[in-house]
Amino acid sequence: MDSRCAIVTGSSSGLGLEISKSLLTSGFTVFGGSRTGTELEHENFYDVELDISVPASVDEFYETVREFTAQVHLVVNNAGICEMAPLNETSAEVFEQHLTTNTLGPFLLFQGLEAFLVKHETHIISILSTAAHYGYPNVAAYNASKFGQLGLIESLKKEWKDHRVRFTNLFPGAIDTPLWDKLGTKFSRDKMLRPEDFMAVFDFLVQAPAVIQFPEVTFLHREGYLE
User: Fold this and answer.
1) Distance between CA atoms of residues 65 and 59, nearest Å
2) Domain residues of the chain, as ranges?
3) How far apart are CA 167 and CA 32, in angstroms?
4) CA distance 143 to 176
5) Number of C-beta neighbours around residue 178 at 10 A
6) Are 218 and 171 in contact (CB under 8 A)?
7) How far, CA to CA in Å, does 31 sit from each of 23, 135, 149?
8) Which of 10, 6, 24, 53 has the alpha carbon at shortest distance from 177?
9) pLDDT, tens digit, for every residue of 102-160?
10) pTM of the entire structure?
């Protein structure tokens, strides 16, 4: 492949879908990984089944990528789950599901990625949410899993230092996506970022010169944290 190659997890809907569309417009070849697949059709988009929490599924995903390229220039670590409930109403099973998807999933993703890294070029962008460094009530499982994912990435930055790849951790505030319909909360959508607000930041980071590093980017609606 002559074009730059990108991996986007959670590409079937929401931010993952919007990110995939934007990267295709920018000339990337995109390998989108999701459990359900997407209706997105483009000659440079490969819709690959991926359950990021299952080791065999991650292995199969990378086997598919390897059929087309040996180099990945951009990785968007986006897949994740979120449920809201007070601690005493959160089951151990739900807590474990968050850790499995939001923490173990990126661990498995990164394990398979090392063979595809391009020295001085690969850029790893993780969509972490402000919940990775700010505690919110009624989302203990989500908070814990995102804090854990951040710890994983911070360790990996040092471990992969010799690869000279870039890491960018994004900490967006609440974004008005269909996820909130499922959560059934009463938060005002007017105090949430819009998907296009998120994409304005994301596109800037992708298009910025490769010599510039953005280790952490926190951005919120002007109304501040959602509580």
Assistant:
1) 10
2) 5-219
3) 20
4) 19
5) 9
6) yes
7) 11, 33, 22
8) 10
9) 999 999 999 999 999 999 999 999 999 999 998 888 899 999 999 999 999 999 999 99
10) 0.93
* Six token digits for residue 169: 């951790």
Handedness of CA 158, 163, 164, 165 (dihedral sign): negative
* Distances in whole angstroms, Cα of residue 61 to Cα of each of 16, 55, 111: 17, 10, 12
Distance of CA 91 to the CA centre of its chain: 25
Q: What is the spatial distance between Cα 37 and Cα 12, in angstroms, rounded to a whole number?
A: 5
Q: What is the pLDDT of residues 47-95, one digit of tens each?
A: 999 999 999 999 999 999 999 999 999 999 999 998 888 999 999 999 9
- Calculate the alpha carbon distances from 75 to 118, 155, 168, 220 in Å: 11, 17, 10, 23
Please provide the CATH number assigned to the domain covering 5-219: 3.40.50.720
